[in-house]
Amino acid sequence: MSLFSLSRELLLIILEELDPVSLLHFCKSSRYIHIIVVNYSTLLYRYELALSGMTDGISSFCSPRARLDPLLCHRKGWLTLNWTSEDRLCIPTPTIVGVSGRFLYHASESSYHGIFQWSLHIYELRSYRTPPVAKLQYCKFNLPFEIRKVAIDAVQNLLVLAELHFPSQDGPITASLHFLDMWTCQQHPQAQNLRFQFQTDWWGTLPPGHRISIERVQIYGIMVGLSVRLGVEEGEGTTELVLVNWHTGIDQRQRFTGDLLSFDILSESCLMVLSHPDEDEDDDSGESAASTWERGPDGLYLHERGKRSPQITIHHIVDDRRLCSAQVISYDLPESWKAISFLQICPNTSLKPNVTPPAGTFFHSDPFQRATVILVEFPSHSVPARYSKKVALVMKESFFQPPSLGDRSLPWEEWQDHCTVIHLPDDSHAFEVVGRKLVFFQSVGEENFVADSRSRLHVLDLNDHAAECLRSIAPLSSTWSWNEKWATASKIFKAGAAEFIRTSTTQVQSITWVGATEDAVILYNECDGQTVIRVLTFGTPQQTPNVP
Which of 157, 263, 403, 426 could form a disulfide with 327 if both were Cys (CB 3.0 to 4.6 A apart)? Predict the structure, then answer.
């Protein structure tokens, strides 16, 4: 008996049991099933979810029919780079500014009654993927220390602030993490200790030309990752990485050091580290072995050694409650990439698996489709054949599985089919990843050797079905130009077997930096001591509830 001989009522019952991805595949295999699906809003919503690379949120009071239009408008906004609403903020240029989760923050030093302190401002960003709120939240806190980095996890009400401490005499330079409640700026009730102090390998006063910075603070559940970099002249440096359980304030036994080192916490038991190891570096524990730096009386100096190709290592995060040794899986990058000048995992701001979305979220990027994007830059004199100076290596984060017993190493030839290499403009900057989108800007002034903020914004949509989504907006067009709030153009590109969409502004914008969330692109422009921040939000506004 054929499935298609069943009554429409029975087919509907079967289709209702399918998850969005299975429903999408079924529609692609049968035009008859597709016709049924597009005529039932509940099924169509789930079909469009899978087509958009999204997954359903937790929204019991909002029907699939009511969520369908916001989904399609959110998708179209990103594909055409035309936003629904714009929020602007003009402030004196702060010391630090950025986005963490669904919050914008900036911090700078201020004077109050002759006492210098640090002011931290936190703004909730609007979203059209959640029920409307009467008022977005805003907080301001005054703190007695210099804030070097901010990380926010609203699900846990956790605010992590990082600072650096330089000794007045010969002593170690330390980095501190403060574990605070994000609404009171007091010690978080689940943190046994207010702060964690990390003693770096660097001591005393730094010589001229040397600079220490906190590169990244990442929160995942009970784990917080901290990377600190010592930079010296000509862009050289070394980075230290440590993981800490913020509940207990105790760091893990594993620590990592490297010249070019970047990380991403994949889960509470799994860590990704990207590095550029030396030829003679051999350490079964997964930690960096010998340093490539030597200490002299007036600073650190590079000790030249041969380099291997860059390497991704997946580490098991040791749980002190269990007796187990660290396991590692290594993934080698191409041999021709031995000479590189920059290497970084681009942080992905969408939700990871097993992370609860904000209450009432209609839909969000599918955590199991999240992209891992590695940015690689080659020296001008050592660009490998068939590559541009800057490339993005893209793969699905779900490809990297936790290591099992015993160490393994995979050469590039064994896993390259899981990667897509995308060639980037030489003058591109500020890369942000959201789900399977890569956001960056390209300087226009640099083309004429003029340093200014004239730039074009680009969004690469790496969703497997992005081309189909684009064609659904204008099915009879072979070129896609949009003239709404911005003049933009979209184009389909091929990279190996993969297709992706690039949407770009055709008019130059004033941009010195870019941020991104699932709902918005954030543009920063610094000029004459002022910073103008533009938050451009995509989607469909929902009706604001009545406030008594």
Answer: 403
| Core vs surface per residue 432-464: b (16+ CB within 10 A) or e | bbbbbbbbbbbbbebeeeeeebbbbbbbbbbbb
What's the predicted TM-score (pTM) here?
0.89
Give the neighbor-by-neighbor strand order of the sheet with 103-112: 96-100, 103-112, 115-124, 138-143
**Residue 227, C-beta contacts closer than 8 angstroms, at least 6 positions apart:** 214, 215, 216, 239, 240, 241, 261, 262, 263
Cα separation, 491 vs 481, in Å, equals: 9
Q: Output phi, psi for 474, to 5 deg.
A: -135, 80
- Which tens digit of pLDDT belongs to each residue from 91-120? 998 889 999 999 999 999 877 777 788 999
As a whole number of angstroms, the distance between CA 517 and CA 546 comes to 28
CA 460 – CA 439 distance, rounded (Å): 6
Residues 471, 480: Cα–Cα separation, whole Å = 9
- Which H or E run contains 26? helix 20-29
More confident residue, 436 or 295: 436
Quick one: tokens of 357?
């979305």
Pairwise pLDDT comparison (260 vs 152), residue with the higher score: 152
Q: Are 203 and 173 in contact (CB under 8 A)?
A: yes
In whole angstroms, give the CA distance from residue 242 to residue 222. 14
Long-range interactions of 242-247: CB distance < 8 A, separation 24+: 242/198, 243/271, 243/317, 244/177, 244/196, 244/198, 246/158, 246/160, 246/177, 246/179, 246/188, 246/191, 246/196, 246/219, 246/222, 247/190, 247/191, 247/192, 247/222
CA-CA distances (angstroms) from residue 41 to 31, 69, 127, 336, 470? 17, 10, 23, 51, 21
At 180 the pLDDT is 98
**Which residue matches tokens 């979220």?**
361
* Residue-by-residue DSSP string for 122-149: EEEPP-SSS---SS--EEEEEESS---E
Tokens encoding 411:
């050469």
Positive or negative, the CA dihedral 328, 329, 331, 332 is: positive
Is residue 240 within 8 Å of 227, Cβ to Cβ? yes
Max CA-CA distance within the chain? 85
Distance set, CA 54 to CA 64, 71, 470 (Å):
14, 9, 16
What are the residues whose beta carbons fall under 8 Å from the beta carbon of 66, sequence distance 6 or more? none
